[in-house]
Design brief:
about 180 residues; alpha+beta; 5-stranded antiparallel sheet; about 30% helix
Length: about 180
C-alpha cells in the first residue's frame, strides 16, 4: 500500500462543508431551493418566467408560464412573453397565472410588477411581482372578511386617524370579499 493511494486525486471534488450553525443551515437550505428553481427553468425557450413573492414567501421563482393578469392602479392588464418593458404599481385584487389550460388565482393587497426582456439567448422575458401580502384566493374566508368589515365600520371614528383607518380598511376588505366570491 502506497501513501499516494490514500490521498484523494487532485481532480476529485472536495466534500461540501456541513453548516455548523443555524444561520449556515438556513443559508444552505435557501441556496438549495434557489438551485432547485434554477434547474426547473433551465432549457426553457420563449416563455414568460414569473416570480411571485411577498416578504414572507416566494410562491414562484422564475416559473415558466403563458401569462399573468394583474390589478394595476390604472386598470387590470395581462402580461405575456415579449410584452413591452413595464414597471407598474398594483392595487388590491386578484392575480391570475395561466399556464396552458391551468390557471391559479392569488389575492394581492398591493405591490409592484417589474417586467424585463431576456438578458440571455433564451427568449424568456421575466415578470417579477413583489407583493406586500399574497395568498391563494382559495384561502380567503368571505364570512370572516364580512365580519371584520362590520366591526371596522361599527368602531368609533372620533378622530381623523380612525376615519382614515376605517376608509382604507374597508376598501381592502371589500376587495378580499370580492376575491373570495
Amino acid at each position: 500500500l502506497k501513501l499516494s493511494e490514500l490521498r484523494p486525486s487532485p481532480t476529485a471534488a472536495a466534500p461540501a462543508p456541513v453548516p455548523t450553525t443555524t444561520t449556515g443551515l438556513a443559508m444552505a437550505l435557501r441556496a438549495a431551493r434557489l438551485l432547485r428553481f434554477a434547474e426547473a427553468s433551465s432549457g426553457v425557450q420563449n416563455r414568460l418566467l414569473l416570480s411571485l413573492c411577498s416578504p414572507g414567501e416566494a410562491v414562484m421563482v422564475n416559473k415558466p408560464v403563458d401569462s399573468v393578469t394583474v390589478p394595476g392602479t390604472e386598470g387590470t392588464f395581462t402580461v405575456t412573453n415579449n410584452h413591452s418593458l413595464i414597471v407598474s404599481q398594483l392595487k388590491a385584487g386578484v392575480i391570475t397565472v395561466r399556464d396552458g389550460q391551468e390557471s391559479k388565482d392569488y389575492f394581492i393587497s398591493d405591490g409592484f410588477l417589474f417586467f424585463n426582456h431576456p438578458t440571455d439567448g433564451s427568449g424568456c422575458c421575466t415578470a417579477k411581482i413583489s407583493a406586500v401580502e399574497l395568498v391563494p384566493t382559495s384561502a380567503l374566508d368571505k364570512d370572516r372578511a364580512s365580519q371584520v368589515l362590520s366591526e371596522l365600520m361599527a368602531a368609533p371614528k372620533d378622530n381623523e386617524w380612525d376615519r382614515a383607518r376605517a376608509q382604507l380598511g374597508a376598501a381592502l376588505i371589500q376587495q378580499v370579499i370580492k376575491a373570495a366570491e
